[in-house]
Give the backbone structure.
Amino acid sequence: SGQPKLVIFHLLGQHVGYVERYPKSDVTFSKDHYQHRTELDIKQKEIVAHYDNATFYNDKVVSSIIDIYRDEDAIIIYLSDHGDEVYDYRNHFGRSHESIISKGRAMSQYEVPFMIWVSDKYKETHPDIIKRINDSVDRPFMTDDLPHLMLDLAGIKCDWFEPSRSLINDQYNVNRKRLLEDSKQNYDEIMKSPN
């Protein structure tokens, strides 16, 4: 229609049940790729391989979505809702719900991929937004601020929009505490701890 539109793709990604998150015809990794991981048994190496295959496939899906919009005046935001541990620092895979969030758990379960991709046409038509995106690259971000970022990108001003919570806004609050779950533990303090 030529009107601005919002399209949302909700991917299965790499949720537990990793073996079910990629086609069997698209296997890149096997347990044999993890011989150097001597702390893992064969079953654990298979789980890591399934996770890596799911990740590799998810990257292909994201790439194919980008290709759909490559020649459009488009911006794409990609992020995961959470991470999973896959024998990263302890004998565990999936998510866990301990009351105290360790540094290892915060890294594995709360740090997620996040990217903003823009088409060449978008770069040409929105140089001001490109500058704002580039200026925000090193700012700390938390996914609960995503609605404010999206409103800002769309140029929508409303009662719910808080400029201090939009990553690309000059008023963005880089000192806002990033609190995790119901426990409200401070992510940045956890990451400064020795373990």
